[in-house]
Design a protein that fits this description.
Elements: H1 5-11, H2 14-22, H3 25-36, H4 40-44, H5 48-70, H6 73-80, H7 92-104, H8 111-137, H9 141-165
Helix pairs in contact: 1-5, 2-9, 3-9, 5-9, 6-7, 8-9
């Protein structure tokens, strides 16, 4: 099972696209700006090429652990990879792994399944982190829900794409 690096790179774009929609003034943008004290003038002072470039890089970095979170077959590989002879043609362990993949390699490899796992990452990892930060920043729950909701939606999409097309 090999990582499809093109899909991983394209998945890194998802946070940019969902951010454009989620934080658009007609969705949550105006409320978010009010809650953060952001203004149009302040937003325009940001170095957009740096912000977008780093967002893309971080999106790719976030996509990498989603491979093992959304593709269950990766667990089999990680379990066997340190067994002597794994990956060498003709060895018993490599044949066992190849047989496993030929029989079960496409199980749970749908967008829907990956989207579920991506959403769960957002809900059970990102939401609590965002909530703790918001508590210490003394931000209202609306702020927490807007930001955590963005990440739940973003990871839902990223997980779906990675699970369906992230390896070959």
């Amino acid at each position: 099972m090999e990582i499809n690096w093109l899909v991983i790179a394209l998945t890194g774009i998802i946070p940019l696209l969902t951010g454009f929609i989620w934080y658009h003034p007609k969705v949550f943008g105006n409320v978010w700006m009010q809650l953060t004290g952001m203004t149009e003038e302040k937003a325009q002072q940001g170095k957009m090429s740096l912000i977008f470039g780093l967002t893309l890089v971080f999106g790719i970095v976030m996509a990498l652990p989603l491979i093992s979170i959304t593709i269950h077959q990766m667990h089999m590989m990680s379990t066997l990879m340190n067994v002597p002879g794994f990956g060498q043609e003709g060895t018993e362990i490599t044949q066992y792994y190849n047989d496993f993949l030929s029989k079960y390699g496409n199980e749970f490899r749908t967008f829907k399944h990956g989207a579920l796992h991506g959403f769960l990452v957002g809900l059970f990892l990102v939401f609590p982190i965002t909530a703790v930060n918001s508590l210490f920043e003394q931000k209202p729950w609306k702020y927490t829900l807007i930001n955590a909701g963005y990440w739940c939606f973003t990871f839902l999409l990223m997980g779906g794409v990675i699970c369906a097309w992230g390896t070959h």
